[in-house]
């Protein structure tokens, strides 16, 4: 036993410097960029063969915005459309995965219950039987099965879990006073109206105010706004910073005060004081994707890299490469809804450069999302596992539990861990994403989870890591009310734009609304075009 | 003889001693932060107390004038016992005593004194064999190397692999080994008298530590036994809960996670009250669903009705539905109900099963544990009762165990109000169960429930033979609420806002 003791530290020392093997395995995943990178490196697809397919509308991109556009076109009586999606499966950053009986998100995973003013989203959720009725004053009633189950969230500070996200351990009276004053201030801002009667912050954001007072908020950081308003409690600032990292992938210092305040105020009803409850599914917003994709049927074509969109006389020519065949396909459409991110547009939309636009202020943050299959739940002492489980002293956002909403509280599960990369220059983040391998991320993730679950490593059966290079548009200071964003939403000829980045914030509600608006614009532009 | 022992063995001794010493300090600091929170304060206090105790120990060493080697071995054995058992004792004590901090710092101080004694004594033992310069250099070197070993091993290997309790026991064992080995290594310095006793004690301490090391998992059991104060006759830790059966004055009691579920002496009162109001509310109930109730005692009552064709019992835990096999007195008490060919046992979370199933039932007996956690509270939500409606035949009646209306009135009425919010007609009723006191139930149906002239529910079928608690007239009396059990206004328990769990926690913590 003594020899054992003498020998061990040497082994320990030799073994602890990074080369440690894990007892579980998994894959390192990323969105499909192979064709895009081939194009970048000079490869040119063969010219399309045969006559181009004629469509009334071609939708480029099968994320929420593109799928919403398709859904809205149908509602307006336009059925002659096709959705071209780069990936094999639709959804963009709202995709989800499945492993046996478990469904889990790979990105966006909840929607705050919409208020009645958000008519289109309410209609969609009614169609999905998620909204099951109306209150006497017309507000939607969400089915109990879809509202995030109690207990919804908890925070781990110094290895101890507490319900709720505010770090209230040892909070001073001044901390708590500031928290209360902050909440009051948010309610005040939520109830505020500009001189045209618009909410200061509304969802979709385009229906909110753009008065000078509101625009001014976009010119300072959330950190500055909090300082200016006397909110210096470290606990409160942590909470606000967490909110910015969670919703925008930015720190308090990087986030525009408009966006920071939007987060806290836009979900408070005009008459109420509480934020709207949260709608979620085991697979996150993948459920919405599935519903919208089913509606498209075979009009949704995956594995298509759109390489060219060109206005031509009375129509638009669209060329795509079939990722599997590396063969080209061409379409001629009356109109195109370009529902891919803006950073793709200059490379694909032929008239983009001539339109005099720029997108220098469009920054997209890198994210890492991991799904971990656990053989058992970690042992718990002070709380039960929640839907959202957050670590106080961490760069990660913690994890959500996929089985929480199903009601399974025992046995194996899949948890989804999130971390935005917070570099000031997102290109640095993307370089980091490409540089680190699976075991690097496994080490980061395991040591993060260990803060709240000392036994986690022995429970992991599989760990899959998704690297999102351009996960989210970032509402940095000055972007949301900058000229570039407002310009980007305008059509170029018969090419209309959709996408959450046009709103400056990455939210399902915004993507959905942009898709619906683009569809409406297309229908209104040529109401009597061939059906 | 000591000069014949290779020197490195002596230094290995120092190394082990030093490692053990630092491990105890790290254990105490980790445990204190783990249990009390605020790691900066805990570590800082523990280190301070420990270091000062080292000084005290060193000072005390000057009073050891004779029999230095023997004292050294005594110190090792004492340290083995005290240090080795420190983590398990502190874990157990945390749950039970108000003055945990005093015990914590007391044990850290005591361990510190013993560790402080070690090196001065050892150096005095060795001083005749080495010159002073060499002695100090070597002993202190190995002392500090030991500290390094401990600080590296502790986070990398010990805590993740062994856990705090087993780490503590392992290093106690090492101290004991050093002590025992010392009786051979330092044999020339020891008198024959008492040598066997010394070795005997070393072996005894090692034995205790080894047993604890093997039994570390059942540590929680001892703490439970301390609370229960009755002999434990059966125990099993399932993935879902800890099942404990105790025996007291010829009867046995089932505890799940430390909560008493029934006492075989008076459980018939509870189960007759739970089952028969629902079963007699319709003519010839045929298909019956039992949710929870894996002990089979509710099924025993159901099987008294000849009309029953099938009983489906859904209970999360196979260890619970298998308890009658593992613990025969329960099989006897339940009349071997779960072995009846009419009974089907399904081990699934009822919340998930109720949505997956497509069967319908004439009567449902809901016998879940009390809503003391969110994972149980979900089974008392409007969502769950709405899902349950889909499993009911047109005339179906359900009964629900609803905790004590006397101890936890808000919880009790919250369950009634939740049933009503989910569209049920619900009648409150109660029964006296000596082990629990006044217990509350709900009789509910999606059709209106009528009361008969005697104030009880309308009976469509007669009560079966062989009941010990209920007859026609006192069944009605269960539905007469005493003055101290009157309706309270509460919110309904919703899946996204489980007020019931918070009511329950509040009421049982203050009143239970």
TrEMBL record, chain B:
Ranges of residues in domain PABS: 202-446
Keywords recorded for this protein, A-Z: Cell membrane, Membrane, Polyamine biosynthesis, Spermidine biosynthesis, Transferase, Transmembrane, Transmembrane helix
Keyword Cell wall biogenesis/degradation in record: no
Topology relative to the membrane: Multi-pass membrane protein
GO terms classed as biological process: spermidine biosynthetic process
Localization of this protein: Cell membrane
NCBIfam families in alphabetical order: PRK03612.1 (NF002956)
Protein name: Polyamine aminopropyltransferase
Organism the protein comes from: Roseiconus nitratireducens
Name of the coding gene: speE
